[in-house]
Amino acid sequence: MKLLDETTALDAIRALLAGADHARIAVAFWGEGAISRLGLGRPGLSLEILCNLDSGACDPAELRRLLNLPDIELRSHPALHAKFYWTAGGAVLGSSNASANGLALESAAATGWHEANISIADPQVLADIDRRFTDLFTGGYPVGPDDLDRAALIWKARTRQAPTGRRLASSLFEAWRTAPRHPIWKRVKVAYWREDLSPEDQAWVNGEIADGRLVSEVGAYDGWNEHIAPGDLLIDFEVSGKSPTYSGTWKAVPGGGRERLRLVLPVKWFALQALGQFPVSEQE
């Protein structure tokens, strides 16, 4: 038995799989690149894999690629949280999911989670793990294309809430420096504009405010719907003068009744799932 971290666990699992013709893998969460990272696409390797698709923490695209492998049975168990990689010659059991964070290459280890795993060669323990896999696998259900379609919806939402593995930040820019690749940043945008709304569009906005259908604080962008989606957070600058003028922070809202206008409301705080809530200071 040997203790393995996130890097040495990957080396041990790859070595196990490279020397086996059959593997049983019960790992709750799967990320992009797991197949190549683990060497699962090798000819002559048959696979039984159990995941937790219902958690929202499995990349459906990677599981589709798994299903396309020639000799695989893929099932899901909604209560699975285990992580073990079993072959007849040995196993690795611990905390590492089949993801870039859970199983890290040496060059990427500093950006992932810190894991603890053990390698196992004892025949009795291997037999116990084999039986445990059979119990869990039997209790799961076969994963098909329709299951992956449904999972894709919660996967997209969950990626914006994924924890960073870093200390919580105290400011917006510190949050960005801490986790610049977090998916939530796709919802934060810097807007530069030069021209006001057309008189026609401004008259429509004023009329909606006067009739009580819009609040007086509302703003609007004309023709930006391809770039700004409802829920996006905006740091706004007017650039019609010699230098940019900061115009506040805004949140895009759905609807509004005028197709080409994206309506926005002022916000004092940026609420970023998994990162925290931050005001945007004048200095920032």
Fold topology:
Layout: E1 2-4, H1 6-18, E2 22-27, H2 34-38, E3 46-51, H3 60-67, E4 72-76, E5 83-87, E6 90-94, E7 117-120, H4 123-139, E8 141-142, H5 145-159, H6 172-178, E9 188-193, H7 199-210, E10 219-222, E11 233-238, E12 245-252, E13 261-266, E14 269-272, E15 276-279
Parallel strand pairs: 2-3, 3-4, 9-11
Antiparallel strand pairs: 1-7, 2-5, 4-8, 5-6, 6-7, 10-13, 11-12, 12-13, 14-15
Helix pairs in contact: 3-5
Continuous helix count: 7
Q: Assign a percent range to the helix content.
A: 25-40%
Q: What is the strand tally? A: 15
Structural class: alpha+beta
Q: Runs with pLDDT <50, length 5+? A: 105-110
Rg result: 25 Å
The pLDDT mean sits at: 87
**What's the order of the H and E elements?**
EHEHEHEEEEHEHHEHEEEEEE
Main sheet: strand order: 1-7-6-5-2-3-4-8
Distance between the termini: 52 Å
CATH class of the largest domain: Alpha Beta
General shape: elongated
Mind describing the biggest β-sheet?
8 strands, mixed
β-sheet strand percentage = 25-35%
Provide a descriptive summary of the structure in words.
The chain starts with a strand and ends in a 5-residue tail after the last strand. Helix 3 packs antiparallel against helix 5. The protein folds into 2 domains: 2-159, Endonuclease, Chain A (2-Layer Sandwich); 172-279. The radius of gyration is 25 Å and the shape is elongated. The strands form 3 sheets. It has an 8-stranded mixed sheet with strand order 1-7-6-5-2-3-4-8, sandwiched between helices. The relative contact order is 0.12. The chain has helices at residues 6-18, 34-38, 60-67, 123-139, 145-159, 172-178, 199-210, and strands at 2-4, 22-27, 46-51, 72-76, 83-87, 90-94, 117-120, 141-142, 188-193, 219-222, 233-238, 245-252, 261-266, 269-272, 276-279. The longest helix has 17 residues, at 123-139. By secondary structure, it is α+β, with helices and mostly antiparallel strands.
